[in-house]
Specification:
alpha/beta, 4 strands, about 60% helix
Length: about 290
């Protein structure tokens, strides 16, 4: 099921594009009024990280939307054309009970993809503003993004059925993102890296491969602070000029674990953080 909110955003667009900062915020809030749950999720996301959603919206998101509008229109069209089919394919491969809800929206920078719930059902939220900022406006990268987020939903469902809760902290995040990346590859039947395009270039994957020990060592050094580990995942940050390297590191950690355990067993580790730490330490051992 696709909930496409983009037409509603376009209804406020003419007012938005000519407005000052306050007017843009007011127009966006009018658009969000039809989707109160979506609005509250975005606000809560910023509250968790102790950032001002209004400040981010005013200074980082809204000023860029006019230039990004043609690409958002393209991404919106592609999502309508292919995202539900990708989700259905992923559901069949992963034996999910039903297709997730897909919500396409213009948000305030909470992420290109977000695996969560909407209306009490498993859902993938696709933030058009971040999709365009990341440069993921082709079928391959968008399909990879959707498969990645469905991978998260699959992981969450497996753990929920066994009464295993989500964890917290950097090693849990590395575990969860690595698992979703492995699922992205499984759904595509080949290694795909949606984060290797747009915000990165063709050198991203070779660089990550050559610098795996460095990435592992740097993650260990950064693991005492969520602020520091954002460099590995957030598209507003980078490591030596490369963005979102944590997805590669997480994937490689999961691949090492699959040498001894099947993926479903890995998904159900009671305390995965301890095992993740061990593997990252092993990988970092080669870095001097």
């Amino acid at each position: 099921m696709l909930i496409d909110t983009f037409p509603d955003f376009m209804r406020v667009w003419q007012r938005f594009v000519v407005a000052d900062e306050d007017g843009k915020l007011e127009a966006w809030m009018d658009y969000m009024a039809a989707y109160p749950e979506l609005l509250e999720k975005q606000k809560a996301d910023y509250e968790r990280s102790e950032q001002s959603w209004e400040e981010i919206a005013r200074t980082r998101i809204f000023p860029e939307l006019e230039d990004r509008m043609p690409a958002m229109q393209k991404a919106s069209r592609l999502i309508r054309e292919m995202a539900p089919d990708v989700a259905t394919s992923a559901r069949q491969i992963l034996s999910l009970q039903s297709d997730p809800i897909i919500v396409a929206y213009v948000g305030i920078g909470c992420g290109a993809g977000w695996a969560t719930e909407y209306g009490g059902e498993p859902a993938v939220l696709l933030g058009l503003e971040n999709i365009v900022e990341c440069g993921w406006t082709d079928e391959s990268s968008l399909g990879g993004l959707v498969a990645h987020e469905v991978g998260h939903l699959f992981h969450f469902e497996l753990r929920r059925k066994e009464n295993l809760e989500k964890g917290r902290g950097p090693f849990w995040q590395l575990y969860a993102e690595g698992f979703a990346q492995r699922i992205e590859h499984l759904v595509a039947s080949k290694p795909t890296w949606h984060m290797a395009t747009g915000i990165n270039d063709e050198t991203w994957l070779p660089w990550c491969e050559e610098n795996l020990s460095y990435l592992a060592s740097e993650f260990l050094e950064s693991s005492d602070s969520e602020e520091k580990t954002r460099r590995f995942f957030g598209h507003w940050y980078d490591l030596r000029g490369k963005k979102q390297c944590g997805y590669y590191l997480g994937h490689e950690v999961l691949a090492r674990m699959e040498e001894t355990d099947p993926l479903r067993t890995i998904a159900l580790y009671p305390e995965p953080e301890k095992r993740i730490l061990e593997v990252v330490q092993m990988m970092a051992g080669n870095y001097a």
